[in-house]
Write a structure and sequence with these properties.
120 residues; eight-stranded antiparallel barrel; 0% helix; mainly beta
C-alpha cells in the first residue's frame, strides 16, 4: 500500500485582483482551478472554478508578497466522470467534501450535502 496521500493547497492571491487557486496533486503536477470567491461555505452556495494551467509540485508551499496559503493538506477522490469529480479535502480545520462539475465553459465547485464524519 502506498502511504503517499496526494496533497492539495488553496492559495489566496491579492493580485491582479483578490481570488483563490485550488491545486490538487495528480500525476506529478498540481491540477489547478481559479476560484474567484473562494471555497463554498455550505451546500447552498456554489462557486465558479476556472481551470488554469497545471503547476509544478514545488508550487505547493510557494508564498510571496501577493500569495499566501489559505489551507493545505491532502485530498482523496471518491468518484470521477468526464463531467464531475467528487473529492474530500483534508485540511487544517478538518475534512470537507466537494464536487467539481464541468459546465459548457468552466467548472462549478459545490460543497456536497453529505459530509465526512467529524474528525475524518
Amino acid at each position: 500500500m502506498n502511504p503517499h496521500r496526494p496533497a492539495f493547497v488553496l492559495h489566496e492571491h491579492d493580485r491582479p485582483r483578490h481570488h483563490f487557486d485550488l491545486r490538487l496533486e495528480e500525476d506529478g503536477v498540481l491540477r489547478s482551478w481559479a476560484v474567484p470567491r473562494g471555497l463554498p461555505p455550505d451546500s447552498r452556495h456554489h462557486r465558479l472554478a476556472v481551470a488554469v494551467p497545471d503547476h509544478d509540485l514545488d508550487h505547493l508551499t510557494y508564498e510571496d508578497a501577493d500569495k499566501s496559503i489559505a489551507d493545505i493538506g491532502w485530498w482523496e477522490e471518491h468518484d470521477r466522470t468526464d463531467r464531475r469529480m467528487l473529492f474530500t479535502l483534508h485540511g487544517r480545520a478538518g475534512s470537507v467534501r466537494y464536487a467539481l462539475i464541468r459546465t459548457d465553459r468552466d467548472w462549478l465547485l459545490r460543497r456536497t450535502v453529505e459530509q465526512p464524519p467529524s474528525g475524518g
